[in-house]
Amino acid sequence: MRRVLFLFGELSDSDVDWLGDAGRVTTLAQGETLISAGTLPSQLAILLDGELAVVMPGSGLDLARLQEGELVGELTFLDPRPPLVSVKAVTSSLVLQIPHRSIATRLARDNSFAARFYRGLGVFLASRLRETTGRFGVAATVNVGDQYLEADELDDEGMERTALAARRFEFLRNKLGVL
């Protein structure tokens, strides 16, 4: 699932519209670095099209591949330490880059936006943690008492939120001229 949906499921339509206005679309050439290990990113990036790789510096090991709808540079809003990994374009890629300072200003001035934004980041990061845990052999289905819990199962509200978030992502792509 596109990770931006977790964030966009919490934000309002006007929040998503603002992100589009506050950012700029950038084309990354194949092999171009978006985020360098050890350097704080100055932008929140939303991958609109293409593919990125999360790379361990020194080894060149790909830790993850990111597809359309992924967020990059979000941890800076929660942890001021520089990233331990780099992010590079695997293919020519389009990203919406929103300056952290623009988002930080809006967060400081608009408590409702801040609540929606941070909740969205929390839901996004919880999903990433579940996925990472699953890679280490933890079962996707866990038996707890008399019920089975699915790691990626959505309830009705979650499905509605995801559908709304998908519409918001498509709105943003259309607004930015990404077809």
If you had to describe this structure to a student in words, what would you say it looks like?
- The protein has 179 residues and is α+β, with helices and mostly antiparallel strands.
- The protein has one domain: Jelly Rolls.
- The protein contains five helices and ten strands; from the N terminus they run ααββββββββααββα.
- It has helices spanning 4-8, 13-22, 100-109, 111-135, 156-175, and strands at residues 24-28, 33-35, 43-49, 52-55, 62-66, 71-72, 86-89, 93-99, 141-144, 147-150.
- The strands form three sheets. The chain has a four-stranded antiparallel beta sheet. Strands 2-7-4-5 form a four-stranded antiparallel beta sheet, with no helix packed on it.
- α3 crosses α4 (111-135).
- It is globular.
DSSP strand content: 25-35%
CATH architecture grouping: Sandwich
**Mean pLDDT across residues:** 89
Can you tell me the CATH topology?
Jelly Rolls
* CATH class assignment: Mainly Beta
Helicity level: 25-40%
What is the CATH homologous superfamily assignment? Jelly Rolls
Number of structural units classed as domains = 1
Widest beta sheet: strand line-up? 1-8-3-6
Largest sheet: 4 strands, antiparallel
Structural class: alpha+beta
Q: Could you tell me how far the N terminus lies from the C terminus, measured between alpha carbons in angstroms?
A: 19 Å
Strand and helix order = HHEEEEEEEEHHEEH
The stretches of 5 or more residues where confidence is low (pLDDT under 50) are none
Backbone shape: globular
Q: Count up the helices.
A: 5
Number of strands: 10
Computed over alpha carbons, the radius of gyration is 17 Å
